[in-house]
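Why do we care about 3D structure at all? Because function follows from shape, and shape follows, mostly, from sequence. That is the central idea of this module. The next example makes it concrete: a single protein chain, its amino acid sequence, and then its structure expressed as tokens.
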Amino acid sequence: MTGAPAADVVIAGAGPAGRSLARACAALDLHALVVDPRPHEPWRNTYGAWAHELPADLPADVVAARGRGVAIARHVHELDDEYTVLDTAALQTHLTDPAVAVRRGRVVAAVPAGADRYPGLRLDDGTTPTGRVVVDATGARQVLACGRPAGGRALAEQTAYGVVVPRDVAARVSGDRLLFMDWRPAHGRPGWPTFLYAVPLDAERVLLEETSLARRPGLPMAELRARLHARLRGAGLADAEIPDRPADVEKVRFPVDSPRHRSPAGVVAIGAADPLVHPASGFSLSTSLRLAPRLAAVIAEALRGGGDPAFVARAARGVVRSPRARTVHALRRRGLETLLALPPAEVPAFFDRFFALPPAHRRAYLDAREDVTASVAAMTSLFGRLTPRLRAHLIRGTLLGARSVRTEQ
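And the structure:
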């Protein structure tokens, strides 16, 4: 290798996945550099996770609210696990380590490792900061990938439109409960089903969000907004009680079935770029937080061993994409296709059966990232609880994928 790299680990993307890995690398005395076009911009997304999924060392002030949730399909299900809503600003502060170097810049591509050069980032200003290993944490855009497969179909997306209201106003809609999912079509609009997600942001504010779990392509924001407003009016809220200011509105859109990252030599992808997004739930934050220390330790060991950039990146990919993780992810992708192939009217019935599973099976399907046996057991248990009609749809979806999914709204 000629010249000296800018850092041991160069990370494109200053979101939770990139920041958590940079922080974990700094804790092991690795020189980490984060590059992002707006590295200090406040995060605005709402992050939630089941309490048992989060790292044990997460500071108490990062948790904004918690509670045992309720899921409503055709029946009401009191959930055993505690759901946690994070304080986004506190999480960003926690993951921002002053020992990590930060550079403002827009990344346009990767510079692959070569026989005599370190891998790096190509920025729009023409510069190319290099590292002993490069990490793509740019999310579903996969900026550092070698291009997407040609002729691919539209991605399945999770979309949502939400408003933040005072707790007493939200209680008239949610019954002052943490609603993980409420599939009742109280919006009165036909088409692909959506559910209400109602979670406290703190002691005084609640997010009410109309959510499309997965659809190819995702439901438009205008449709989700219309459904949420109709749902809230149906619960007795006046128009003046339904916020429309940007500061009180949350819009969500991200793919849940991004293609596998085609990584250049010396580059490894993490977070939604890999992707680590759960295809059936859309969750990825807790996985990124838990994986960061383990991934940093593998990178540090490979670097201490004097490995070349391609070797270091391969070692890191072995953590992110272990054979067991790939197998579980493939099973979950098939579960996504099954969901997309269901007739809209059958989706609530499907979730009635899912939330009736024993807690261990639900946790395995949602969280057992590398436990193939537990994942298969959960899916088998779910299949055994389905009605004959739902089993027929599941088999059809497994064999044909979502080619039969209707495109109505």
